[in-house]
Structure formats: structure tokens, C-alpha cells
Amino acid sequence: MNKPELLATAASLEEAAALLDAGADALLIGDDRFGMRLAGHFSLEDTLAAVQLAHGRGCKVYVSLGGLMTNRLLDELPAYVKAIGELGVDGAEFGDPAVLAAVKSEAPELKLFWNAEMTSTNYATANYWGRKGASRVVLARELNMDEITEMVPHLEMEAQVQVHGMTNIYHSKRKLVASYMAHQGRQVEGSLGKERGLFLIEAERKEEKFPIYEDVNGTHIMSSDDICIMEDLHILMAAGVHSFKVEGLLKPAAYNVAAVKAYRKAIDAYAADPEGYAFDEEWLEEVRALQDPERELSFGFFYKEQVY
Amino acid sequence: METRTMPKYKGKRYRLDKPELLAPAGNLEKLKFAVHYGADAVYIGGQKYGLRSGADNFSFEEMREGVEFAKKYGAKVFVATNIYAHNEDLAGIEEYLRNLYEAGIAAVIVADPVIVDTARRAVPGLEVHLSTQQSTINWQAVSFWKEEGLPRVVLGRETSLEEIAEIKQHVDIEIETFIHGAMCSSYSGRCVLSNHFTDRDSNRGGCCQSCRWKYDLFEDARWVSEEEQGGAVQPLQPGVTQLPLHQPEDNQFTMGSKDLCMLESIPDLIEAGIDSFKIEGRMKSIHYVATVVNAYRKAIDAYMADPEGYVLKPEWLEELQKAANRPLNTGFFYDTPDHEDHIYEPEEKAAPYDFAGLVLEYDAGTGMALIQQRNHFKPGQEVEFFGPDNTVFKQTVGELWDEEGNSLDAARHPLQRVRMKVDHPVAYFDMMRKRK
Q1: What residues of chain B, 78 to 107, have a C-beta less than 8 Å from chain A?
Q2: What is the pLDDT of residue B390?
Q3: Which residues of B touch A142 (CB under 8 A)?
Q4: Cross-chain residue pair A308–B200, CB shorter than 8 Å
Q5: Which end of chain A is less enclosed by CB atoms within 10 A, N or C?
Q6: Strand, helix or coil at B200?
Q7: Cβ of B141 and A196 within 8 Å?
């Protein structure tokens, strides 16, 4: 079998180095203007440093171009795409078809990964974007295990699945926290961004805390639990999923390093001996020790049936 | 909202001389009202692949009847097939689209590229309009869909008039935008609150409108010490883990938006080059659809007849208010919505007026109307008549008779046929409403 890739998001160059040390095969980084919900912002200079760091160890760097682009941003997009192409970035995520034209003209060698977040939900649509140039689909986190495993054989491209961390559940262009503060007639003190630690609680779900933050792309609300599918990672490996993502958004670097180390162990153990593989609860000890006690480590939607 | 009479943004309409007024039709009866009250086209849901699993939704037989009815008015019928499909939804798309085409449907409104692609390949005669669920907000993306063979894109609600005019300058394609009704406050398609709160898939029609629920906003009062605690989460002060950003007397946090209303901006919309003006509300009542369509029809026709001499008539706005069930705003057309554009206060859901009766017949000689009861009304009550051909008047209900000529003390029975004298001429399809 081909050994699946372990992909992690990095908030800074220091974290990038630590994640590579911990066993990540690839890093996802980006520029806040074009990427969305990035763990941190990477300038072109830092992007180059990350590429050198990763390539020096035989690892890869992907850049997120996953934002919903405005007309105005289209003026800046080609130059940025050209620049990351020249820096040797290995691939770029996209959701907006506007990115296709920019990559085609400015960096045709750049690999394209289709990531429309919650709307990447079937293999036929993934293959459609494959025909437009994508070589990987990043599957929606709202799919269940059966949908994922039955999808892989139908894909004419690689599949990436998020195996750990939080997910975005709502994105608005509106500044909803600032609007609420203004409605109350209160001054906004300090930032309303990622570092502020804001969260929402709904009356009937007092135990669940939904992180919320604002940035240039509007307002983002995140899941109240963190996916952790390591116990059943072998099912995804057996199904032939090509890339496993550890989402590090809104997490301390030490936590992300622990998560990457844990998945590294599982992937290596399975690759060495698929038949004899057994999940070892000890792999998760450090993750559990660092897990925010107010956030559940869950199977996300992997074993849920949704109705409509 | 202020009246804007000098359109600032110039776009170009390439294919249509006059913008299309596109109305929702939750069922066959609503379709007939929407068309009769002036919609150039209506959009409906079929039994599959639509985002309103709670609506009545049309059978193919009802679609054929709807198409026949609309045809008499020169109006078109579109079907929303705007889910994001999962693997299990893929089988049957082609057959479904073929059946729509055979039923006389003019276009499908599609979000998922697999449905776009299937329609283009298998049913080339069926037009494909890209749904707002794709959140298309820039000209390059619009251009992509044009090259895919789509004659029309429904833009994301986040697009401003300035951006719309730019899109029209760059791409020769029909642009449709929502102009009235309820709005997702998120980028459409980019919200799975429903999935997380209730296991209902919002992108397949299960949305439970969690954005309109109320929430409390807090700030985390804990920190992470990398050195001392090895990265574990610690309270800043013992026992204090969170700080509220609200006081007990405050309204709670919500994402819920006011409803869109662009009636005061018709000249701007027309001059920006928007081809189709879409009204939201497949779940809304007949009274709502008829009232809203009627108001926009009048404004569009008045502007097209005489752009220079156009004046917004206050009564059009008053009419809209009679059907409105939320406060109104202009969405993203002029500015990004702020604190005045969300509904923090408790909502008064109900529209101020009820649909009380439908005019079936009118006898000019006697001034008597035959009215189909749609809600309770009785002698002495003040009612209003309105209709697409400028029927607008108030009167007090006089004596009521049933069809056998028996005097009635009230019209109590649903769909009962009641005769009453009307103060001015009315026509079939005119509506009678009463204040609640």
C-alpha cells in the first residue's frame, strides 16, 4: 500500500518546524487574504522558509486559496499565485472556481486540491473538479464513515480526510460579534479575533462551547467538539484515503505536536503490518492530557446518520 | 432606508430588455397567484433534490398544470434542484431532470456541479441556473460558469451593487439576485449549524434555522502555560473559566438577519443590469406572495415606462408592510450589514394582515361579489380588497349570504362561498384581507 500522508496546519514557522519534527509529512499554511480560517498568517518570506524547511526533510507545503474571492481580491490573486508557484509550494487548496484561472495562467505546475468545506459531499462532484484540474478532494467533515469509504474507489483523484481537531460550522461575511456589541451600546475592547477566546452557548446545550471569531473574512463559528478518529484510523487507511489532516486552528502548538505524534505512530504501525495492526490507547495519552476539558474528543459525524 | 433616485452603478443587461420578476411558489395554488399577480417566472420545488423538504413540493402532474397555467401569461416555471448531493443521491438525477424537462420546466436552479454537469450532458434543452447556494460573488467565477454553458448565475447575497455592475461589465451572462425576503446570514451553503445541533443536513433541505436561535456570548478566562503546565489549559483565577460579554438584562446574541427589501431601490437594481429579481419564500402564504409580487410588479413597470419620471409610491411600501413578518433592510447591496440589520429583540412573527377571502365572481349590475372564504370574517368588520389590476379599496363588510341566499352572521367555514356587496368593482383572483 501507499503510506498515507499526515498533514498538519501550522500557525507559525516555529510551529511548522515542531510539527515536522513530530512527524508531519506535509503542512498547510497560507495568507489570510486568500486562505480562510488559517491557523496563522504566513508572509511570502515565511512561506519560502517553510518550503525550505519542509523540502529539506522530504516533506511538502500546501497553501490555502480556499477563500471566497471578491472582485477586488481577483486583482491581487494572480501575483500571489505566481509567487507561491515560484517559491516551490507543492499544492494549493481552492473552493472558488476563480482560483482555477489564476493557477492555469500563473503557476500551471501547482497541484490543485478541491476543498469546498461542507459542500464537498460526493465523488461525482469531486471528479468534476478533477476534470477541471484538481488532483485531490478534501472531503466534507459532515460525511460519515460509510460515505467516505464507499467514495474512495469512485474517485479519480486523491482523498483527504480531517481526522483530528475542530471544524467550521458557520461562516458569514457579516461582523456579527461587533454588531452585537454595538447593539448593546458597548465599546469593543481589544480584538474579536482568534486570540480572544470568544464562544457561544445555546440555552439547551449548556455544556457545549462554540468558538466564534472575526477576521477579514467575516465571522466564523466553530464546532464545540474536536474530531478524533484515531481509534478507527485503520478503516480509513484500509479504504485508501491518501491524506489525513490534523487541524490545528485555535489550538496551542504543544497540543498539535502531540496530535501529530500520535497519528504518526498509528500510520507507521499500520503501514508496517496492516494485518497485525491494533490501535493502542497509549498513543492518545498526551493528546488527552492536553485536551481542553471543556471540549469533547468525538467521532464527529463519522458514525452519525443525518436526516433532512 | 432612504429613497435613492439617482442610480450610481451602471451595468448592462444583455439578453432581457426588462428585468424578470421571479417569485416563489410553494404549491400549485401559490403558483397561480404569483403568476396572476405579475411574476414573469416562478420557482418551485419538486419531490427530490430541493432544499425545502418541509414545503408541499410539486408532483410532475402538478408541474405540468402549473406550466400550462403560467404559459397563458407568458410566464416560465423553474425548479430548484439545489441540494449538495451525497453519494446516495446520485442515482436518478438524470431521470429526474428528464422528467422536469418533459413537464415543460424552463430551467433548473442548481448548486452541485454534478447536477449542473448531468443536466448539460443529458438534457441540453433544460436551462441550468447556478444557485445562490454556490455563493458566487466575483466575475471570474461567474465567467467560469458561463464557460460551462450556464446562461444565468444567481449571485451570493454578499455581492454589492457596485460588484454586480462590475460582474455585468466583465461577463455577458444573466445575473439573478434576491431582492426580497428572508436571508441566510451565512454564506449560503457554508452553514452546518443544523447538522451540529439537530443532525439535520442543512444542505439537503433539513435547515432548522439555528441562526435565529438565541445565544450567550462569553470570553474564555483560561490560558495555556507552555512552560509550567506542559501546554494544559488553566483558569486565570481559581474557579473562573469564563466571562460573559452580556448583562442579564441584555438581548441575547443571534446571527438572525432582518429580511431583505429592495423596493425602494428598483432604479439602482435595474440600472446595475440585474436580469432577474428574485423574491424569497416558497414556505410563505398566498397572501404574502401575491402582495409582494404585486408591489414589485408595479414599481418595475413604472420605472421601465418612464425612468426619468419615476417616483416610488408610498402605497407600494405600505402594501409590502402588510405582508412583512420581520423588519426589513437592504442586505449587502449598499453596505455590509451591521448592528441595525440583525434581530436581537424578541420577534413578532405574524404579519399584520390575514387573507380573508378570494373573489371568484363579480356582478357589475348588482355590485355583488362571490367570495371564497379563506379566514373568518363577519358583517361590520373593515376589510381591504386588492388585486393585480389596481383594485385597492377598504370597506366595511355588509350583509353576507350563502349561495342559497341565507343570511349569515359570519363566514366561518373554510372555502365557503359567500356573497356580499362590494363598494367598487372587483375581479376574479382579487383578494380580500383583514387586519388581525
Answers
A1: 84-90
A2: 82
A3: 192, 195, 201
A4: yes
A5: N
A6: strand
A7: no
Closest CA to B214 of B343, B340, B329: B343
| Cross-chain CB nearest to B219 (options A74, A97, A196) | A196
For chain B positions 17-76, those within 8 Å of chain A (CB to CB) are: 53
User: Any CB–CB contact under 8 A between B319 and chain A?
Assistant: no
Q: Distance (Å) from the C-alpha of residue A272 to the closest C-alpha of chain B?
A: 31
H or E element at residue B358: strand B353-363
Give the pLDDT confidence score for residue B235 in this predicted structure. Answer: 79
B26-83 pLDDT per residue, tens: 999 999 999 999 999 999 999 999 887 766 799 999 999 999 999 999 999 999 999 9
pTM (2 decimals)? Answer: 0.95
**Cα dihedral sign for B284, B287, B291, B297?**
positive
pLDDT tens-digit profile of B209-246?
Answer: 999 999 999 999 887 766 555 667 777 788 888 999 99
Q: How far apart are CA B70 and CA B106, in angstroms?
A: 11
Helices B161-170 and B139-147 sit at what angle, rounded to 10 degrees?
Answer: 40
B347 DSSP 8-state letter? P
What is the least distance, in Å, from the CA of A119 to any CA of chain B?
6
DSSP-assigned letters across all residues of A99-137: HHHHHHHH-TTSEEEE--GGG---HHHHHHHHHTTEEEE
Instruction: Give the residue ranges of DSSP H helices in chain A.
Output: 13-22, 44-55, 71-87, 98-106, 123-131, 145-151, 176-184, 233-239, 253-272, 285-290
